[in-house]
## 1
Amino acid sequence: MPRHPRLDPLADRYAARTHGMKTSEIRALFSVVSRPEVVSLAGGMPAVTALPLDAVGSMIGELVSGMGAQTLQYGSGQGDPRLRERICDVMALEGITDASPSEVVVTVGSQQGLDLVTRVFVDPGDVVLAEGPSYVGALGVFQAAQARVRHVPMDDDGLIPEALEQALLECRAAGDRVKFLYTVPNYHNPAGVTLSEPRRQAIVELADRYDLLVIEDNPYGLLGFDREPMRALRARDDRRVIYLGSFSKTFSPGLRVGWVLAPLAVREKLVLATEAQVLCPPSLTQYAVARYLDTQPWREQVKHFVELYRERRDAALESLAALMPPGTTWTRPDGGFYVWLKLPHGLDAKLMQPRAVTAHVAYVPGIGFYADGSGQEFMRLSYCYPEPDQIREGVRRLARVIEAELDLHSTFDGVDTGTFRAVSGGQPGIVGPATSDRYGDRA
Amino acid sequence: MPRHPRLDPLADRYAARTHGMKTSEIRALFSVVSRPEVVSLAGGMPAVTALPLDAVGSMIGELVSGMGAQTLQYGSGQGDPRLRERICDVMALEGITDASPSEVVVTVGSQQGLDLVTRVFVDPGDVVLAEGPSYVGALGVFQAAQARVRHVPMDDDGLIPEALEQALLECRAAGDRVKFLYTVPNYHNPAGVTLSEPRRQAIVELADRYDLLVIEDNPYGLLGFDREPMRALRARDDRRVIYLGSFSKTFSPGLRVGWVLAPLAVREKLVLATEAQVLCPPSLTQYAVARYLDTQPWREQVKHFVELYRERRDAALESLAALMPPGTTWTRPDGGFYVWLKLPHGLDAKLMQPRAVTAHVAYVPGIGFYADGSGQEFMRLSYCYPEPDQIREGVRRLARVIEAELDLHSTFDGVDTGTFRAVSGGQPGIVGPATSDRYGDRA
Ligand SMILES: Cc1ncc(COP(=O)(O)O)c(C=O)c1O
Ligand SMILES: Cc1ncc(COP(=O)(O)O)c(C=O)c1O
């Protein structure tokens, strides 16, 4: 594959946005991760085999045999009206009770929702605020839009409101056009933390005070282990919050069905943007989701998923606590798919990766979750896909790799044992990413 | 719905590209067209009910029941490797025998392919050359990318090479950055014409001489009524031609499966762009297409579609010839879905539309197919979806509307009877669109 620009005869013809595109850390891992001997704590693939595949199969088969004239045909750009109604029911579970189907746009996964919102709002050079770390797919979208990402620090309670306010003030002082805050309030990817109730209120108030648009990306909201779903930001503010949802984690990612809930004027722009991008979302997959919600016990299925992920989370946290060398810290997710781990002082997750692969364990290095190349000492561990035993084995291998690395560096005296809580008065721009010393102790 | 900017509190926050987006002529018709009493010659919906729905339904049901771990899971951004192999077999039917699956990117319909190629190449202000008229969905993509579209005239043999060369020279003189030529060589949407064999050669030679990138958009290539598929431009030049294909017209548009064939360096950019846009195309729909190609008699099905569309084309052309008032001309498609009709001198298809709808017939006014608001005297008639009897009834109604309009205008002496063949020496920029006096005579 010609990678060197001089080997690409079209190299001088690409758009400016194309030059910034680069392969994600996650994709670079794909070939490694698929080897059977490797325990992958890298991918974020849901456990779809826990679905009732026979029932779903015959349901979809009947949709085609019985309703082929609709399911195999073009549909509306905004998405199937029946599905949009059911989406409003789903959002009601998180306190969004005033959404109308006319404000919903069905998308090809919430990834497309992210892309559409960004295209509608962001000009090159505009600033987007995002947690540090942030979802890698969102960073890819912002990069393709030539936005400047400014990270706002988090801690165990999620995004820090004071840090957000400071970022807003600094952007204002610098004359930056802040287009929106992008935030994942529940079971954050990759940080594994959740925005606390008081902070939700604080952030909505800040949005009001600073006239800030908020993109609330919420694919994991129904996957809490210990509690009812938390009330969405959108449930508190229907004018400044644009909400992104997805069936990837509650049903199936292979259908690629997500949605955006936005005020009507924005909704109209989003529909025009999606029509230019894909004409309309696939009809079959939309009908499949609507029918699934209508006829299958989908809430029980979500509970089933939650039990399964809880068990895997427990396996991960227990073995981390039992095996990780001192100085290693990590977050303690109470929902979702991810643990965010900080290596002992001096270690670099990306540099360590070849050794981890040799030891047959894979993770995603933290730098992929920052727009500015920071995050070297972090990694994301996903517990969603492997069985508990594999998770334990993976953590065991990882612990050995880290220990060997520490031996190599012989820097035990440099081990970082302090408080990791990010401080809003820190260095402007990107402040320290989320970690947790609370849960980092050897149990 | 707040349409007035002052009613949209976010009006000052949209990206520059968003301001240019507007509802397409086709979508504006949707509500009208769906009324049962209206004969719609407007939409381009394929006749999917001619598919063996039971067989396709059980095939897809089995894919989910038996292979849910793959079909309901995330897949690769580039698309399923098995499907990409089968896509290469399909392209071989049009003379593309050297394509490798690694050069193929699966897309959410060829619409997404168009969008991806445009995103990878086009900066705001760049020039895109396109036939006049051109596919409305492509114009929407170019507009969203803030490209400047320069139309190149066509005639009954498709794009006119001399006019293309003239456009290239003029752009060169003006210092414009021409990013590519966008062309639909087969059974053009909306013009209904096909690029002749000698012109294919001429255009490939021009591309070589002027170092011009060509986007060959070919959803209808296998739907020729009277002959074997023509040899693709891509079959003649694998370095300067990027090829877009689709299963929307040969199988099902509701699955939204299309593809791009591009040199490896470009392919790499396209994969990064699609990952930022949708992560990956839906797995289920890709497996459905691959399995369909593997196990169903899909070539016979394409023949069946072709017979059906030929019959409808015949119904359209026969009734047009029998009923249209003098001065009305139209193209004579030998494949695909569309007839491009020119009204008698002085009539305006868009202004006439309310009267047509009152008379219960719908079409798409020609102006939607030009980037510059020209094309008032044209309309697109689609014969793909209605039954032959409906088509005849629709043409009858349309003829009456045109006649009434002519009476109203009392401009019979101004009727245009001359030669409509577009001339390359015409006015720079947009020269006269394709029409056909050859087939316009009252039969
Ligand atoms: C935070 C977040 N947003 C969006 C997505 C995209 O999900 P999808 O496009 O499958 O709906 C993901 C997937 O991992 C995610 O973690
Ligand atoms: C010329 C042309 N290109 C592309 C498309 C988009 O097709 P799809 O996205 O369904 O593959 C169409 C659909 O009508 C078309 O006519």
Note: The CA atoms of residues 116 and 277 of chain B lie 9 Å apart.
## 2
Amino acid sequence: MSGYPRQLEILIKELTKLPGVGEKSAQRLAFHILDKDEDQVDALAQSMVNAKRQLKHCSVCGNLTDSDPCAICSDPGRRKDQICVVETPRDLMAMERIREYKGTYHVLYGVISPMDGIGPEDINLKSLIKRLQGQDVEEVIIATNPTIQGEATAMYISKLLNPAGIKVSRIAHGIPVGSDLEFADEVTLLKSFEGRRTI
Amino acid sequence: MSGYPRQLEILIKELTKLPGVGEKSAQRLAFHILDKDEDQVDALAQSMVNAKRQLKHCSVCGNLTDSDPCAICSDPGRRKDQICVVETPRDLMAMERIREYKGTYHVLYGVISPMDGIGPEDINLKSLIKRLQGQDVEEVIIATNPTIQGEATAMYISKLLNPAGIKVSRIAHGIPVGSDLEFADEVTLLKSFEGRRTI
């Protein structure tokens, strides 16, 4: 019992369920919300309900979308024979921002992580296999994160697809542009060295 | 244009309006909200709307309440001749947690701050004066924060009320309990020295 009116207590409790929001932050957010106009609070609340109600996973690539198939999958200008595999819709958006890739995507919603009890069947992988059986795919580009789990997932997918004659590639890891060799960690520098190209 | 579906973009935009929530945090929160069940999202959204719709300021003390007068003002067990002046409802709750004070409150919703163009008429002070005219008050305890603005507000109120013969007191400032003299700043130590009591 915090002593606040019941409605405020409920609001604070709901806010603490958000990631990274503790009791103190929730109180701060709650009072901020109460300071807003009724219209603004309604807009915030409605945006949550609308996003949750109207956004679904694309039945082809798994990306979040309000139409099925999603805008990318249904775009005739995008190459259907290139599939870039990413962990999350946010990674997909990061790839889109480079404005270079003209293929399609597949969103895994996670990575294989035996330590956490997450196996290949727990991520959106089955639909990728099904997708590859149904259409001609030239290249699968794996853009999972350069973590142990991301690498393991990349290895798993490449071992799965190579026997079927599908080219599987991995995005390059190395020194970030604008960064300094001196401050790079050993693993990144090793990846950078291994991935060297003739110029 | 982030490239996300429209509903998601709206949600992210609404979330960035919250204090301390930037673009990246808003994206993280948005995806977290989409990961929840529909029921949970509804509960969160509804808690905001309900709190905003149903909570009002107490017509006596200004505290947030769902009934008017608020629970404290309408409690016959609380002394009406003691009024503790605080800056915000959160400060009021902090005072309540000590379980010692049995008087009533007055919430200013701010402090006098000429630098920010906030004068006595911009905070909830007029209603305090009106309240003091309407009832016998023995003591006004000023519990504004020990900041320059909080002190200035305390001084302003005491100068205003002293001629009317109302006792005005200020909560003590000094070394926090459990803290170390060595690490106290000079101003706190000075306040602590000035406020010394015979034991």
Note: Chain A has a mean pLDDT of 91.
